[in-house]
Design a protein that fits this description.
The protein is α/β, with parallel strands linked by helices and 334 residues long. The chain has a domain of 229 residues: NAD(P)-binding Rossmann-like Domain (Rossmann fold, 3-Layer(aba) Sandwich), CATH 3.40.50. 40% of the residues lie in helices and 17% in strands. The protein is built from 11 helices and 13 strands. The protein has a 7-stranded parallel sheet, sandwiched between helices. It has a two-stranded parallel sheet with strand order 7-10. The chain has a two-stranded parallel ribbon with strand order 8-13. Helix 1 packs parallel to helix 2, helix 1 packs across helix 8 and helix 5 runs parallel beside helix 6. The longest helix has 21 residues. The radius of gyration is 19 Å and the shape is globular. The relative contact order is 0.14. It binds nicotinamide-adenine-dinucleotide (NAD) and uridine-5'-diphosphate-4-deoxy-4-fluoro-alpha-D-galactose. The site of uridine-5'-diphosphate-4-deoxy-4-fluoro-alpha-D-galactose has 21 residues, from helix 7 and strand 8.
Length: 334
Amino acid sequence: MNILVTGGTGYIGSHTTIELIKAGHTVAIMDNLSNSKIEVLDKIEIIAGKKPAFFPVDLLDFDATLKAFKSSRFDAVIHFAGLKAVGESVEKPLWYYENNIEGTINLLKAMKETDVSKLIFSSSATVYGDRGEDSARLNETMTTGVNVTNPYGWTKAMIEQIIRDVCGADPKFEATVLRYFNPVGADKSGLIGEDPNGIPNNLMPIVMKVYLGKIPELTIFGDDYDTEDGSCERDFIHVTDLAKGHLKALEHSKPGVSVYNLGTGKATSVLSIVNAFEKISGKTLPKKIGRRRAGDLKSICADPEKAEKELGWKAELSIEDVIEDTLRYLGNCE
Ligand code: NAD
Ligand code: UFG
């Protein structure tokens, strides 16, 4: 297939592009490089053997977006482009609503105008909202868009609704919504990994910067939760497993909206992933226990059974793989 990947120079998009090229697809990336670097294209070429075409386009620019669509005949779109920092979304909500929602509307309009009707959308476990004790194992039948805790999460819940409505109005439109849990790790080549512009917000990119000495110490946000070791638990999924889920979603795409969790089904605590990182790297990280972070939920874990049954997809890589691949990538960053 000829596939347009929006946000394809970013973390998950670049890893997915590699898997798409390896599987024989032709890929074009559309990205405004607001949170990624153009050099990723060369790395993709080294790893996958082919450089994707590149449109340096901001999805907020409808004319440029449509022009890119008219310049090629895409069979499908995988839509990663968006802003994703939870804390920043609380400070700059309008920017998040504009970028994520208007960007998606422009994309959908350009798809409609050029008769492209297959979409895969990057959603997030955050759409399940704060469900108290019920957060532990989330499945696709649960309600979403209730008690969502930040504007970023609301953009995902709202975009899911927009996609449902677009499918409702066009019986031939095929949309797959993938709800990611916590993506971590790097391609096993060690050539690409998570490399956000600016100060990172997520656990692993912070651990990586502490390891490299670029951030003085790691703060673990709370060790007084009602969990086995007191720290929060998350479903950490290797980014390559996640990337492969998109290939399966493409293969099984069908008219209407299909929704799948992409997670491992296993919760790992913050303390235990940090301990594993120290053990495998052989380096003790400067760290302290801090206060709970506002808005954090105690434990979040996917029920990934639907993706296994319907897509034949299952996460295969372990936390050890995540850390070894991350360290290989860091070795190339030093
Ligand atoms: P990322 O920031 O590395 O990649 C997103 C890419 O989109 C970046 O390259 C950025 O430059 C581009 N972009 C942003 N706004 C754009 C616009 N208006 N026009 C064109 N390009 C634009 O993020 P990621 O971690 O790879 O996430 C990809 C997708 O997955 C996002 O939609 C994110 O919300 C979603 N997601 C991520 C996580 C996570 O923890 N990483 C979890 C759940 C869902
Ligand atoms: N954490 C720390 N110290 C840090 C950073 C994070 O202890 O410096 C802890 C957090 O408190 C949390 C865990 O590590 O318990 C994971 O935090 P992240 O910020 O890495 O990830 P979140 O689970 O908060 O959020 C992620 C994505 C969201 C997505 C959500 C879905 O960033 O986009 O998963 O579950 F919506």
